[in-house]
Design brief:
The structure is a single chain. It contains 11 helices and 8 strands. The protein is an alpha/beta fold. It has one domain (9-242): Phosphoenolpyruvate-binding domains (TIM Barrel, Alpha-Beta Barrel), CATH 3.20.20.60. The protein is elongated.
């Protein structure tokens, strides 16, 4: 069932207070956004993973603001009442002013309902500047682009006391900055539970355990459309890659064998009209000769 009431930060907060789970999936185009809305998913995240799973690049840091606006516009058209949240791309929120300007563009030009801010306590002031401008912010703690670029590795966060303390510092900083919710990515389940129970705002986990207030997956991953990565937290609900490839192969085979198109796929012209056409054509050919 599609979302029948517009999802807002207030709606998400009430879901947490009632103990109702929040769902989040990603989309980069109109058809997928419409499918997600029809499934009743709360949040559609237009993430900069469009660079990899959408455009086939080896990384996501090259995605531009203009690209994010373009894909947000497409998702907005299909999202219905699902909440559209768009990622601030890498390098577009280095200062409070730049962060606010980027967020304003994603809202005004893209049609986003909120922005997604990956970072740590060091960037919390930039997140606060966006909130102060009247734009809802969904924070993102744990695995972030900055950490991957800095270390060159995909490392689980919060497995030591010091690392877990840094995660908690980041969580507190983003909560105090006014974020309406937090995505927790690849942190120990117990830490995800502690954070979720301690915060008033909702948490959405992706590899952060079942006790978060909601769960997220990359849609292309959970549908088997993108198999370059297979993280532990991923559950593949349907292998569409095999289904789609099979259908495309059948089309090619039927074309090559003359099976498609069949009579049922064509259009008719009345014999009388066809006779007139052939007569006219014959006269014209004769005149030209």
């Amino acid at each position: 069932m599609s979302v029948n009431k517009k999802v807002t930060p207030s709606v998400l907060l009430r879901k947490k207070q009632r103990g109702e789970k929040i769902s989040l999936l990603t989309a980069y185009d109109f058809p997928m956004a419409r499918f997600i809305n029809q499934a009743g998913v709360d949040i559609i995240l237009v993430s900069d993973a469009v660079g990899t799973v959408g455009n086939g690049r080896s990384e996501a840091i090259s995605v531009s603001i203009d690209e994010m606006i373009y894909h947000t516009q497409a998702v907005r058209n299909g999202a219905g009442n699902s909440m559209v949240v768009t990622t601030l791309p890498f390098g577009s929120y280095e200062t409070a002013q730049q962060a606010t300007e980027t967020a304003v563009r994603l809202m005004k030009e893209g049609g986003a309902d909120a922005v997604h801010f990956e970072g740590s306590s060091a960037q919390a002031n930039n997140a606060k500047a966006i909130v102060d401008a009247g734009i809802p912010v969904l924070g993102h703690i744990g695995i972030t682009k900055q950490k991957i670029v800095r270390t060159g590795a995909f490392q689980i966060q919060g497995r030591t006391a010091d690392s877990a303390q840094q995660i908690l510092n980041d969580v507190v900083a983003f909560s105090n900055a006014g974020a309406f919710g937090l995505i927790l990515e690849c942190v120990p389940s117990r830490l995800g539970e502690i954070i979720s129970q301690s915060l008033e705002i909702p948490t959405i986990g992706i590899g952060a355990g079942p006790m978060c207030d909601g769960q997220a997956l990359v849609t292309q991953d959970m549908l088997g459309l993108f198999k370059d990565l297979s993280p532990r937290f991923l559950k593949v609900y349907l292998d569409l890659q095999d289904i789609i490839t099979s259908a495309l192969t059948q089309f090619r085979t039927e074309v090559e064998q003359g099976v498609f198109p069949g009579p049922e796929h064509g259009y008719e012209i009345a014999e009388e009209e066809l006779g007139k056409l052939l007569t006219q054509f014959q006269i014209r050919v004769t005149q030209e000769l």
